[in-house]
Design a protein that fits this description.
- Helices cover 9% and strands 39% of the residues.
- It is globular, with a radius of gyration of 23 Å.
- By secondary structure, it is mainly beta.
- The protein contains two helices and 22 strands.
- The longest helix has 24 residues.
- The C terminus is likely disordered.
- Strands 10, 13, 14, 15, 17, 19 and 20 form a seven-stranded antiparallel β-sheet that branches.
């Protein structure tokens, strides 16, 4: 019995030493704001070789061995690249972006006498799903309606999400990983029409893991006028778990095939890829896939809740 206890203690000590050695072997980065020196959570860190991760709530991330490059980015900060981590622990400071939003104005409160309305693809039929992935972003462009007599205000971001896990196939993990979601609004780039790398709602809104999005969506801190250029609704999957970009995360995003015009874009940060239209994805170019989708391209079921002033009715005396 004593011998067995000694053996168990030996194994426990060995495991602790191995864990400590592993922790010491991995170099760590802490990402902070260059002005406030506060931690920058959920900053994207690309390591090259189609791999990357996000900083945690304390702005920290472990750098894996064999990292080809280190590029740090965040929607509110200028992108920064460093050659290598020179010490076991190193602090990197990101410079906040100076953003000029042009015609975008911010209102402290919603206009009085309002009537809510939904725009986007929330009411479209769900026909397929897009699995979430670390560092993956999906965007839907919602144009400004020329028939609006008054500029409406955006109050909430809407998304049709699926939190089920029975259909997922996990190759790296045995239990589902629930991602944080960053919802954001961005203007289209004047040259290529893709989402700009500038948030118009102060860096977006984070929905914690396992917190389900209600049918009312996620409210903006304050309403903003609908941009005359149209606006992109963005959803980004974030996890600090050590998984690759190919690993499926929960929730998935519901998609429709009924849209004739493709206004959906996606971005794969940890594959070193920028924004591209959903219809330009190589997967949809294959004959088998095209036949399966009947030459239709899935569109993201995202949307906005907006309001506009009610028209005053004249009383007849």
């Amino acid at each position: 019995m004593k011998q067995q206890n000694r053996y168990r203690r030996f194994l426990l000590l060995l495991a602790m030493l191995s864990a400590a050695s592993f922790g010491m072997a991995q170099k760590r980065l802490t990402v902070k704001d260059s002005i406030t020196h506060e931690a920058v959570p959920f900053a994207s860190v690309y390591f090259g070789n189609e791999s990357g991760g996000y900083t945690d709530e304390k702005g920290m991330i472990a750098i894996p061995k064999g990292a080809v490059q280190i590029r740090l980015s965040h929607i509110c900060y200028s992108t920064k690249s460093i050659a290598k981590v020179t010490a076991d622990a190193q602090t990197i400071y990101l410079v906040p972006k100076s953003i000029t939003l042009g015609e975008i104005a911010v209102s402290a409160k919603a206009p009085k006498r309002i009537k809510n309305k939904e725009v986007g693809l929330m009411k479209a039929k769900t026909q397929t799903k897009h699995k979430g992935a670390n560092g993956f972003e999906m965007a839907l462009f919602i144009p400004y309606d020329s028939a609006w007599t008054d500029t409406p205000y955006i109050h909430s971001i809407l998304a049709s999400l699926d939190y089920s896990t029975h259909y997922l196939v996990f190759t790296e993990i045995k239990t589902p990983i629930h991602a944080s979601l960053r919802f954001d609004l961005r203007l289209p780039d004047a040259k290529n029409g893709a989402p700009r790398d500038e948030s118009i709602i102060d860096g977006g809104i984070i929905l914690p893991p396992k917190q389900k999005l209600s049918k009312d969506g996620i409210s903006l801190p304050r309403p903003i006028p609908f941009p005359k250029t149209g606006v992109f609704v963005i959803v980004e999957w974030i996890t600090t778990a050590q998984v690759s970009e190919s690993c499926s995360l929960v929730p998935s995003l519901n998609m429709t095939l009924d849209e004739k015009e493709d206004r959906t874009w996606n971005k794969k940060t940890f594959r070193g890829m920028g924004w591209r239209r959903e219809q330009d994805e190589p997967v949809y170019q294959g004959e088998t896939v095209r036949e399966f989708y009947e030459d239709r391209v899935p569109s993201a079921k995202l949307g906005l809740r907006i309001s506009k002033k009610r028209e005053m009715k004249h009383q007849i005396q």
